[in-house]
Write a structure and sequence with these properties.
- The protein is mainly α.
- It has one domain.
- The protein is about 95% helix and about 0% strand.
- It is built from 1 helix and no strands.
- The chain is rod-shaped and about 65 Å long.
């Protein structure tokens, strides 16, 4: 049981790291599009 717990913990840690890397990559790919969209949404507020 202890061995299984350790193996599960290790697998979850690996999957979590993989997921975090994937999300960072997606955010980097979408950064410019998101900036344009945020500027469009918040532009009128900045202008007054």
């Amino acid at each position: 049981c202890v061995a299984s717990h350790g193996a599960i913990k290790k697998e979850v840690a690996t999957k979590s790291a993989d997921m975090q890397q994937h999300l960072v990559k997606l955010a980097q790919e979408d950064e410019q599009m998101l900036r344009v969209e945020l500027d469009r949404i918040h532009g009128p507020q900045r202008e007054g």
